[in-house]
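Q: Convert this sequence to structure tokens.
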Amino acid sequence: MFHYNSTFYLYRVFNMKKLKMEITLVFSLFVVSVQAETVRLVGGVNKYEGRVEVFRDGRWGTVCDNGWDFTAANVVCREVGFGNAVTNVFGQNPGDASQPILLHNVRCTGQELRLSDCPSKTGSGTCDHSEDISVRCSPVNDFDVRLVDGLHLNVGRLQVYRNGTWGQVCDRHWNDDSADVACRQLGYVRSDSWVESYKLKENASPIEFDLFQCTGSEGSLMDCVSHAWNENSDCGNTVKIQCSYEGDLAYSQGDSRFVGGDTTMAGILDVYIYGEWRTVCSKVWNKDEGKAVCKGHGYEGAQEHKGNPNDYNKSLVIKRPVHAYGIDCSGKKSLNDCHFKTDKLYIGCTHDDDVAPTCGPTGLSGGGIAGIVIGSLFVSFFLYSCCISPQLQKRKRNAARPRPPPAQPNSTPNPSAITTSDVNIDIEPAAVPSAAEIEPPSYDVAVKTPSTFVEPT
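A:
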């Protein structure tokens, strides 16, 4: 009996857990399906216009027009799958009084893929529904193009609009000329080299085109030879492109330059990453990155790896977006070799967060200090062996020699007590020269003084 009841109890618990898991799974699927749509246009005369509503915390709410501009409208229009914004509509389509105002003070740069990527403040602030923002977007047409699944507008998987559907393009016959045409159609100057480390999100949209054959001179993909996708064809990968504004100049991933300063060793850091020159957010920056960028510029290292952007001319970069990628330069000697993490973003960085390093000599490293210590010890040993040690040994030998006995007291006579009687001096008389040694006088002298020179008798 006990065994039967225990089994029944365990069976019932198992079924309850299973039921709970099924309910949770269904609820999770429901939430995911709703959250897939985070922005919508409501209450317009057609699908291309309406009040902007966002989905937050399980509910739809409006957006206050405080701080809203045309750039934010473009972000919304792209996110809902339409063309660029035609106009903003202020206060003409207010939301229901029961609806919350979820965002205000939205500040987009225009490079965001989603409205949620734009810096903003939650809640209504001081707004009411008379300030709800609406937008009007341009419709999309066949052969319009866009890039999706990337982190910025200029990089991503190519989609072409056809028969009411955004579809992908098979890369089997894709070439650089076709990429240049697609980038120019998007408003860029040319296509850039694809960086293999760039990770795109998965995309389940259908393939609409098998190929585009462009010469590179066309104004849009519509002008190129194209073939629609054949369901019986096999496509391994779809087209991914990176576009650039940089004209004929070719830059490499991780190229960098200093902006706003008076020297080439310091300034606001500008880095070419994934086809765009942008400043770098200091929230992703540390000493390894500062050392790598300075070494790449030919300096020993970074005296200041972050610095202060306010010390430089920020007007040169104020209209440029900020790179928010995570960066890892551990053990790298150049920023070109660093890893830029497209799966780790720091949203909300502004130009107040820009990196502004100072390069130059960094002082003695641990190896340098060790070298100095070892060198000092070697020099000390050399001086001791060559100079000091022989002198010490000489002193030891001199100390070991016997010394003469000390002088007796008063044994030395006092010079003042010595008299002439105590000293015997032998003085020899001076030698007198002989007559033969005396030179005879001259004739004139002898005549004038005859008495002086008388020959002895």
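The helical segments are 2-35, 70-79, 176-185, 287-296, 366-400, 443-448.
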